[in-house]
Amino acid sequence: MTFHRRIFEATYSLIAVLFLLAWLRETAALRPLRDRPSSGSLPWGDEQLFLRRDGNDPNPYSRWNITGTYRGRWSFAGTSNGSSKFLDFGKSNGMSVFELASTPTKINGVHYVQGAVIFHDVHDGGRDLGVAQMRVEGVYIWPFKQLRLVVSSGSEGELLQEDHFMSNPYHLLGAFSSQVFQESPGEKVRRKKMLMSDMEKHCNIEIAAQVSRISSCQADGERDCYHLEGLMESPAVEDDGECFSPILLNATSLNVEVYYNKAVNYTLLVTFISFLQVLLLIRQMEHSNTQSGAAKVSIIMIGQQAIMDAYLCLLHLTAGILVESLFNAFATAAFFKFVVFSIFEMRYLLAIWKACRPLGNGEGWEAMRRELSVLYSRFYGILLGGILVMYEFHNFLRPILFMMYSFWIPQIINNVIRDTRKPLHPHYILGMSVTRLAIPLYIFGCPNNFMRVKVDRDWCISLIVFMGFQALILLLQHYLGSRWFIPRQILPEKVLLQ
User: Of 2, 395, 419, 426, which residue has the fewest beta carbons closer than 10 angstroms?
Assistant: First the structure.
């Protein structure tokens, strides 16, 4: 016992040090977005010098910086049906996103702007593209608050722009809230590039917009918010009509740092929850450190929780890869989930398997290895099969989550069948029930979550009641007996061995 207690104390210390390092690392992760250089020709430091040079200019527009992400709506001017030589917008209006990066030029009052315009609900010959993205460049004349953009066909800054935009935390929002398309990403990207190339050859797409500042948005963050309103026209190169009808555009800038900070705070929450779950698992392993104690625990219950943590590990790691500026934060959360899943839960799973496994006569290592390989094959087969099921039935995510959060039910049934008492520590039951609820309640219950998921209070209340009911039955089984809710008349008689 002394040796095991020393191991647990060392584990406590190691987890505490790792949690402290993770907190310091994620706090430092706030710096890349604020200190990120722009994708233009001049860094932000030169822009500050440019603005200081005009510090005596009383013009209030001299310090306007329109770099950022803008989200708004597009609609066809007049009664157009949205016909186009290259695109079928399908609707008369929809959502649009602007990604702009502005840098000063040698001409006083003129900023060079490059970026992209993204249209949603776009079709190509009946096939849904999801979005159509156009690279744009132009100038922003801040004394007159005028923005002029044209479609850019050059590829010199394409890689730089892609790195800048894909590292933007705003793109993470769509990754969580949009549906998964059946078409492969590589094929979709190639088709979009061919379509945009044809448009760039045959169309002169021009955007003229007026820029205004929104004073009511300044309290939400350190940066000002701006509003764009203008018109996009597309006269053909050979004067044979328009590529598509004029489109009215309006968009308002998003405070990306707010989303970034929310994402980092979310990863801190996941890291802290993982730390608590490790402590709860250690407490439970101490509670059932004998072979008879481990045999009372349901292997399905532990395996189901291990699969949930494996999914969370993969999900956070994928999110960190998709958004480079948030990689440190999400990779730390994924690492802690990996520790919970691979080190503690899998170790406890093997201990339960060994305790429940009957000893065979003359059974050697080869037979044990075969059974162990079958156990691992079933576990990882269910893990991969669950990914395919969630991919095919992603529209039924909430019922699937309800099934995953029924992990206490196998233990309840196991207690009734075997008439086992006190297999789980009460702290483990309560702690795991609360910590497991934290992530789904944040996603579906927090109105200010960074994933743009619509709040569903009824579903959250149903999940809390469902989990609370399971935990209540386990606690009553712990104190009143595993079969307390079954009438004695239908229980089998106990045989006392003398």
Answer: 2
Within 288-364, where are the H helices?
291-295, 299-322, 327-338, 346-356
Residues 207 and 347 in one domain: no
Is residue 399 in a domain? yes
Closest alpha carbon to 103 in 54, 41, 158: 41
Choose one of 254, 271, 302: the last residue of a domain.
254
Residue range(s) defining the domain that contains residue 55:
40-254
Last-in-domain residue among 205, 237, 254: 254
Tokens 């001049």 locate to: 42
Q: How far is CA 175 from CA 113, 316, 394, in A?
A: 27, 12, 13
Q: CA–CA distance from 376 to each of 116, 140, 294, 371, 404 (Å)? A: 47, 60, 19, 9, 20
pLDDT single digits (tens) 55-69? 444 444 455 788 888
Buried b (16+ CB within 10 A) or exposed e, 442-467: bbbbeeebbbeeeeeeebbeebeeeb
User: Residue 219 contacts by C-beta under 8 Å, 6 or more apart in sequence?
Assistant: none
Confidence (pLDDT) at 68 = 83
pLDDT, tens only, 204-252: 778 889 888 886 564 444 567 888 898 888 765 555 556 667 888 888 8
| Neighbour tally for 366: CB within 10 Å | 8
Contact 310, 339 (CB under 8 A): no
Confirm whether 492 is domain-assigned.
no
Model confidence, pTM: 0.66
Which residue carries 């998003």 as its tokens? 254
Phi, psi of 112 (to 5 degrees): -85, 135
